[in-house]
Amino acid sequence: MELNADGQSVRLRPHHLLCTQGYSGTGYDDKFKAHMDEIVRRLRTEKRTPVALVFSTDELCGACPNRLGEDHCRTNEKVKAFDRKTAECFHLKEKTYIYQDVIRKIRQAATPEIMDYICGDCSWYPVSACKERVLGLSSSE
Length: 141
Description:
Blueprint: E1 10-12, H1 16-22, H2 30-45, E2 50-53, E3 67-69, E4 72-73, H3 76-90, E5 96-98, H4 99-109, H5 112-119, H6 130-134
Parallel strand pairs: 1-2
Antiparallel strand pairs: 2-5, 3-4
């Protein structure tokens, strides 16, 4: 698991704050799924987990088959738009947050329209629990 210099922070792009809430155990392949399972487990179970928001490839990107290199993937423009929209809608900056605190902030501000605006072009959106979990409509964590 890639950590920041402090040895504890998880590097995440802004839109991955949404993905980690909606993730339900599926992925591109077994390698990606195992990687995602571990990161999401940590974020959901460890208290006060620091996350360093980055507008580039992050820890989740590490096992993604669409990653072509540092700050570059097959769907680069779409991914960067997800990040930009997430940061815009939830007033996020490139800095370190406590995961549980920033998720609470997102959930308080999220609306169905915001979720559709940010995630509407995501291929996972129609088959994930992102919208329900971010909006608090699902009790599964």
